[in-house]
Amino acid sequence: MTIRTSRLDRMSDEDVLSLRFCDLPLRLKGSVVQQRAKIIFDELEAREICFRPSIWIAEEWYNPDEVVGFAVPFYLLHPRLVRLERKMMLEAEGVSLTEAMSILRHETGHAVDEAFQLRKMSKYRQVFGSPDRTYPTDYIADPDSRDFVHHLNAWYAQSHPVEDFAETFAVWLKSERGWRRQYRDWPALAKLKVVDEWMDERRLVEPKIKPRNIANELASSTRTLAEHYQEKRDFYAIDGEDEFDSALQRIF
Q1: What is the pLDDT of residues 200-246, one digit of tens each?
Q2: 175 pLDDT exceeds 80?
């Protein structure tokens, strides 16, 4: 049974961790996430790119294959959940305006790639590399490389060809005058010019794959937040005893 927003504000960390995802009072409509996404989608419209990616609530940021859109993490939909995310994971990715806009532009790049099936073009492989390359569990980035744009942290464009495209698109979407000036002496400028050419060719063109509404994939999830965070903390190797470890032990 979905709890009231006011009740969530008053709950202890232990009680919130015991909640199932389907119990959370989360709505995209009217949220700060939707407002920020609209800014990005208006940037698409200004460039005459004729679609808006679908967005929905999930456990994490992600963009699935064959879907023109992306998921946003649940904690962004409520300040109480942001606080819990920070305590459990030491940070809450995408809360600040600057970081949120960067991630949203990046995820929109994935959606554009999927909508227009850009990765199937031979030139995509020539410019960015094979999209079929296995995603690495880890990668070693070269901080001094000028072959890739700098957008998200950890030189993320260097992690995989598909991420290289999404990062390049995000820089392109943010500001035409800005990227031409910032990257004028970089080899990465050639990638930006290719993206500019591809997007110009697709002005007012209907995408090959249309967005579909998903809304909230957590609405029927009986997974608890404790299970989510136990898995996430294990994955990121967040060790050490703190008050939340004992809370998790009591729940499990």
Answers
A1: 999 999 998 888 777 788 999 999 999 999 999 999 998 755 555 65
A2: yes
d(CA 11, CA 8): 5
* Distance from C-alpha of 77 to C-alpha of 18, rounded to nearest angstrom: 18
- Angle among Cα 149, 151, 152 to the nearest 5 degrees reads 130
Instruction: Check: CB of residue 33 under 8 Å from CB of residue 223.
Output: no
Mean pLDDT of 157-165: 98
Query: Which two tokens mark 98?
Result: 């600057």
Q: How is 65-81 classified by DSSP, letter by letter?
A: TT-SEEEEEGGGG-HHH
Q: Which two tokens stand for residue 61?
A: 């940021």
- Rounded Cα gap, residues 215 and 55, in angstroms: 7
pTM for this model (two decimals): 0.91
Tokens of 187: 């080899």
Query: What is the number of helices (H) and of strands (E) in the chain?
Result: 11, 2
Mean pLDDT of 172-180: 91
